TrEMBL record, chain A:
Cited Gene3D superfamilies: NAD(P)-binding Rossmann-like Domain (3.40.50.720)
Lineage of origin: Bacteria, Bacillati, Actinomycetota, Actinomycetes, Pseudonocardiales
Pfam family, one: Epimerase
Protein's name according to its UniProt entry: UDP-glucose 4-epimerase
InterPro entries named in the record: Epimerase_deHydtase, Lipid_A_modif_metabolic_enz, NAD(P)-bd_dom_sf
Species of the source: Lentzea pudingi
Span of domain NAD-dependent epimerase/dehydratase: 6-236
Automatic annotation (TrEMBL), chain B:
The protein's name: Phospholipid/glycerol acyltransferase domain-containing protein
Domain of life: Bacteria
Listed Pfam families: Acyltransferase
Phospholipid/glycerol acyltransferase domain ranges (all copies): 102-221
CDD domains in alphabetical order: LPLAT_MGAT-like (cd07987)
InterPro entries: P_lipid/glycerol_AcTrfase_prd (IPR016676), Plipid/glycerol_acylTrfase (IPR002123)
Length: 345, 316
């Protein structure tokens, strides 16, 4: 069933904004509402076309009025985010994520017209440790519950969403657990991390990283909104990159940091405003995480267009990351050595 | 190759110049083999390996198994240990299927898990299909820096049912050492006495995926580091399951870390089929226990048989 009136949260960010733009381009949808606390950047707003921007805080009960007066029938909750707005933004981020979700769900529960809810969650809910199985399926839980940060927010958000679907069994709830996003256009903690000239990693560990191209992420969210596909789905690209391998593909140098010094180095990068890593993201860079996407393929009916490796290469090319050692130099060196060897024969 | 001198058909200098011009065009393998000496081919392989590593141009699977690295870097150093030091003899390698999932269950001994490495090397080098053995290791392995990362790159993963079933159902050859630390860290006087086989998790994984279980008996590994003592306090301090004392370690320091050159035998037994028990066989605890016992008994009896045939620990 194609929705009539769609409300998208978090439209001033990449995912929410581009999603609203896609809905606005769909003639079957009558009305698209985009909600966020701050207006989207100008180019994003232009892309959004006929979508209406509502400057509202989802932490405020006012959101209930928006939903009921506009006769919203489908809510896409895309504002749960991992990147804080600034050095002090972590508390605000948590409030936006958790309290915002509570308010939004309360508003949805109140409005009888809402028939579908799509929630952008994260595979961070599985946690990351040495005692975890190599690949997570949807029915697994974290070995130790994340104690802080985005992962904990996401676990709580999912808890509220489960509560909501118990109270409103008539609403189709789709929860999408995304891996980290990558792509030439999206800006996340990870894209900033790989763009550093020298990339710090944890000494002696090599995380397995699974990525999803941001265009695939948009396509999945769009599909979940336009079709009735309730359930919890893992969403990630095919294949896995090792962190060290990804850094080499980006042509960067990695700087192994002993795990005892990781918080100090992380603090340095935060105060230098380069990359803001939370402890759970650092744990991710230590152990990595891979999810099983069989359900996404079989039941949700979506196969990502980019594999992890292709998505990463697209990001590297799109950002114009120049490798520190030119591949041509390496080729020339290889040729030179072989020629010298041929002469010795 | 050095003795077999190849008489060049062409002028070698012109040949080299031609090669330099067309370096991208890979010459046909047969031609190259007759015209290029062995060391040069090896150099070419080495350089292309180095280029792949620098560019990050290789594939790993979802468990972190890096085939390129394993075959070129991790496995070669085991060759002298396998062939010259322990002089490993394998028996019944044909019991391992050339394709499809199978579960290898072996006894564990020797203070340091060299038996797992030797089994993996033996299968990779001597089995006709050269299959990689995907071992299931303890949590401690993956928690340890460097070792954990290397273990994953070498194809190992955490010993848990989810991983075991995933590997088996995707047709991999999986290895388990169900005795775990109880087996590998047992005192020398208990050598070749099998310890408890965990909770039989490996059997239920095999039952669920319907793959055969291949019992493996390893003789020789018990004698590489005869453990005559265990400093429990030090082990607790360092977070190890045991801190071994052998006749030479820690007495001789790093010299004591050299394993004794015992002669090894690895016997791969008849596969035990698990696909004959029907649908929900894994939910039948009695069946799981019985199968676990059957596997354990098979390994124990084979160990005794191999030991009676062995006349000398070091000469075989």
């Amino acid at each position: 069933m194609t929705p009539k009136v769609v409300l998208v949260t978090g439209v001033s960010r990449f995912l929410g904004g581009h999603l609203a733009a896609r809905f606005a381009a769909n003639p079957d949808i009558e009305r698209v509402l985009g909600v966020d606390t701050e207006p989207p950047p100008r180019d994003l707003l232009r892309r959004m076309g006929r979508a209406e921007f509502v400057r509202a805080d989802i932490r405020n009960p006012l959101i209930s009025k928006v939903i009921s007066t506009a006769n919203v029938d489908t809510v896409v909750h895309a504002s749960v985010t991992a990147s804080p707005a600034g050095p002090t933004g972590r508390t605000v981020m948590k409030e936006m994520n958790v309290i915002g979700t509570m308010q939004l769900l309360a508003a949805c529960q109140k409005s009888p017209r809402v028939t579908k809810l799509v929630v952008k969650s994260t595979s961070a809910v599985y946690g990351s440790s040495s005692r975890d199985p190599a690949v997570f399926t949807e029915d697994m839980g974290p070995k130790d519950l994340p104690s802080s940060g985005y992962a904990k927010d996401a676990v709580e958000v999912e808890g509220y969403v489960r509560g909501f679907s118990r109270r409103r069994p008539d609403v189709d709830v789709t929860t999408l657990r995304f891996t980290n996003f990558i792509g030439p256009r999206i800006d996340t903690v990870l894209t900033r991390y790989f763009a550093l000239p020298v990339v710090p990693t944890v000494l002696g560990y090599d995380a397995r990283v699974q990525l999803l191209h941001s265009e695939d992420a948009l396509a999945v969210l769009e599909r979940a909104t336009l079709h009735d596909l309730p359930g919890v789905y893992n969403v990630g690209g095919d294949g896995v990159l090792l962190l060290s391998q990804a850094i080499r593909r980006a042509g960067r140098l990695n700087l192994p940091v002993p795990s005892a010094a990781v918080p100090t180095v992380g603090g340095f990068f935060r105060s230098a405003r380069l990359v803001d890593f939370s402890p759970d993201q650092m744990r991710f860079l230590n152990w990595g995480r891979v999810i099983d996407t069989t359900l996404l393929r079989k039941e949700f009916g979506f196969t990502p267009r980019w594999t992890t490796q292709q998505a990463f290469d697209d990001y590297v090319n799109g950002r114009g990351l120049k490798p520190l050692i030119d591949p041509e130099t390496i080729d020339a060196a290889e040729r030179g050595i072989l020629d010298a060897a041929a002469r010795f024969r | 190759m050095a003795g077999a001198r190849v008489i060049p058909l062409h002028d070698p200098e012109r040949d080299a110049a031609r090669r330099a011009r067309h370096v991208e065009v890979v010459p046909e393998p047969e031609q190259q083999q007759s015209a290029t000496p062995d060391w040069e081919r090896r150099l070419t392989d080495l350089l292309s390996f180095a280029r792949r590593r620098i560019a990050g141009d290789y594939q790993i699977d979802e468990f972190g198994f890096d085939r390129d690295l394993t075959e070129n870097v991790l496995m070669p150093p085991l060759k002298p240990l396998y062939e010259k030091w322990f002089r490993v003899e394998t028996i019944g390698l044909n019991n391992i299927p050339t394709a499809g999932g199978a579960l290898i269950v072996a006894n564990h001994s020797g203070t340091v898990p060299l038996d797992a490495l030797m089994t993996a090397y033996g299968i990779a080098s001597e089995h006709p299909a050269h299959r990689p053995l995907r071992g299931l290791g303890a949590d401690l392995v993956f928690r340890t820096p460097v070792l954990g990362a290397l273990a994953r790159k070498g194809g190992q993963t955490l010993a848990c049912n989810a991983d075991a079933e995933r590997l088996l159902s995707s047709g991999e050859l999986v290895g388990v050492w169900p005795e775990g630390f109880k087996g590998i860290g047992k005192p020398f006087k208990d050598r070749y006495k099998l310890q408890r086989f965990g909770r039989g998790g490996f059997v239920s994984a095999a039952l669920k995926t319907g793959v055969p279980i291949i019992p493996v008996s390893i003789v020789g590994a018990e004698e590489i580091y005869p453990m005559i003592g265990d400093i429990k306090t030090l082990a607790r301090l360092l977070g190890f399951p045991y801190f071994p004392v052998t006749p030479f370690f820690p007495l001789l320091g790093p010299l004591g870390a050299i394993p004794l050159p015992s002669k090894w035998y690895i016997e791969f037994g008849e596969p035990i089929r698990t696909d004959v028990f029907g649908e929900n066989a894994a939910d039948d605890p009695m069946l799981v226990f019985n199968l676990t016992d059957q596997v354990r008994e098979t390994i124990q009896q084979t160990l005794y048989r191999l030991l009676t045939q062995r006349r000398n620990v070091f000469l075989g």
